[in-house]
Amino acid sequence: MEMGLRVKDPNGFQTESVFPVDTSTLRGTRVSTYRAYLHPVLGRRNLKVITYAQAQKIIFNDKNKVVAVSYSHDGKIHQVYIRDGTGPYSSTGSEVGALFSSSLASRTDWPAIYLTYWPYGVSKVFAIDQENLYLTRSGLLTKYMAADIGSDGFIVFIVLAKPKSFGELTLASANPNEHPIIDPNFLSHPDDIKVLLEGIQKSLKMTTQTNAFKKIGARLTNSSFPGCEKFVHLSAEYWDCYARNFCNSMYHPSGTCRMGRSSGDPGAVVDSQLRVLGTTGLRVIDASIMPQKLRTFFDTSLEHTTRRNFSVRPNISCYC
């Protein structure tokens, strides 16, 4: 309220707001989508789960209809033939957030900055875990957090809710077992770093100037990020250096098989029912179908999309 924001549901129409972050939990315990949706129905006759299987090829007939899928498992190639009404399904197996508009927004109340706050106990183990998580240089975060080890703290993730930079996903070869080539292309558009720096300033204002955070004694670490010591601490140049040296993905890539119209849209892959354009019997049901990146976590939207598509096709057999 001190920031002039209303509490709203982030899963609805997204405007400038603050909200509790949705988590996949049940009675205080972390619950995966497997545990919530798949595990309770493992005994169904029309469900067969095969782990450590790699899809190899989708087989079409002369009318471009999917008739079979081949997959590898335990060093052997297996083939599943599809009957009408059934088919294999292949799967790749916080606490508070806020949305803000940026000065570059094309319209008012069009959030481009997402802040999410996560509490942590600062320890040497935590620093090492974060280095492994973000694949940073060994010792980088250990040095950055050294002065605060033993303290209670929280991390603020400043997220580009609507980045203008686009990454690229391309095939390395026709071999399905070879990893694709992924180029995230972070901060390639000049507006993105400007919005990111605005997000940092929004976060600093919220955590250092509001009574809510003053009551819990919140303060920013006094340590400078390694590699940015030559800049005046907390200056615009310092934060520019920080953002460019510690910029990471939120692990929510999307849009590589996006939804669109079959005519006049060369980038479209699936239609509004997630059917692959130009084929019969083939759907894509994951985050790749999203036409645009969502501003916040897309877990809720993705789970709803999956649940809706399987609920209207109850006879699908699954090979995961």
From TrEMBL:
Residues 2-81 form the Glucose-methanol-choline oxidoreductase N-terminal domain. Keywords: FAD, Flavoprotein. It comes from the Eukaryota. Its cofactor is FAD. InterPro entries: GMC_OxRdtase, GMC_OxRdtase_N, GMC_OxRtase_C. Residues 163-293 form the Glucose-methanol-choline oxidoreductase C-terminal domain. GO terms for molecular function: flavin adenine dinucleotide binding; oxidoreductase activity, acting on CH-OH group of donors. It holds the Pfam family GMC_oxred_C. This is Glucose-methanol-choline oxidoreductase C-terminal domain-containing protein.
